[in-house]
Each structure stands twice: as structure tokens, then as C-alpha cells.
Amino acid sequence: MSDTLTQYKNVVSQCEDLYLKKAKDYGTSWRVLRPISIVDQIYIKAARIRQIQETGNQKIADTIESEFIGIVNYGIIALVQAAIPANSPTELSAEETKHWYDVKAKEVEDLMLQKNHDYGEAWRDMSQQSFVDLILVKLLRIKQILANDGQTLVSEGAGANFIDIVNYGIFALIKIRE
């Protein structure tokens, strides 16, 4: 498990590094995105990975690895958006941007540790294709939750699904790098 935590933290650090560099380039323009738009951004990335997996062909240089990084970062963005009051400014300072990423990444990591304990790191035996399929399932669930105005009867809410998406993306990145 200590190896997993080291690998996990390395992946998150690399994802956060890109996130913060993009924040310097673009600011926090993502703050205007509504939940469904974030879902669609992640969907585009997951669908592209699946297309490449199924056909073995791609025409643009972005790698599967870079798409998983995008999935992780958009998942964190979704969690941050849900936590920040709607009337907050669109532009966050560099310190706030980093703070919110760290807070949400820590929440995701904490849940991973709990699930890894209970499931015995079953993800290590999963395929990259399964991670993509599970991400797509979670996105469809979130779309339905949003269509139901965020209400669920017996299921986890959108936030829990975004957390799972982030963890699946991180697990895929760990496996790519092994």
C-alpha cells in the first residue's frame, strides 16, 4: 500500500502541476462552466480514449495519458465548483486555486485509501479499458442526477461519482506509468 500511496501522490502532483500552469495561462476561466459542461468535457476525453483503444488509430498527438490527466483535472474542477459559493468571483487567485485543488485532491485520496483497504487494491487487476468504461458509466449517472435536479432516492450524488472518476483516472495513470 505504501507503494500505491507514493505512486498516487506522484500522479496527483503531476496533474496539479499542469492544472496550476494552465491557471497561469488562462486564469480560472473554467469557473464559468456549469456541471453539465464539465461532464461533457470529461466525456469527450473518455470517449476519445475509448475510440483510440478500439481502433488503435489517432490523428492528433495528444496521448491517452494526457487525456487521463485532463479527466483527473476536470474531475477536481467539478468538485471545486460544487464547493465554492455560486456568488464567488470567477477569477481565483493563484493561492486560492492551489488551495482548492489541494483540498479536493485530499478528499479524493482519503476515499481511495478507505476503498483500497476494503477492496484490497482490486483496481490493480483492472484493464485500462475498464477504467474508461467505468468513467463513462459515472458520467451517464451524473447526467441523470443533474436531469433530476441533483436529487437521488438511494444513490450517491454527483460529487461521489466525480470522486470515483478522479480515482479511476489516477489509477489508469499509475498503470500507464508502471
Task: List descriptors.
0% strand; mainly alpha; 178 residues; 74% helix; 6 helices
Description:
The protein is mainly α and 178 residues long. The protein has 6 helices and no strands. α1 (2-26) crosses α6 (158-177), α3 crosses α4 (94-119) and α3 (64-83) packs antiparallel against α6 (158-177). The relative contact order is 0.17.
Unreliable segments of 5+ consecutive residues: none
The helicity comes to over 70%
According to DSSP, the number of beta strands is 0
**Estimated radius of gyration:** 16 Å
How many helical stretches? Answer: 6
Q: How is the topology of this model organized?
A:
Blueprint: H1 2-26, H2 35-55, H3 64-83, H4 94-119, H5 128-147, H6 158-177
Helix pairs in contact: 1-3, 1-4, 1-6, 2-3, 2-5, 3-4, 3-6, 4-6, 5-6
A few lines on this structure:
The protein is mostly helical and 178 residues long. The chain is 74% helix and 0% strand.
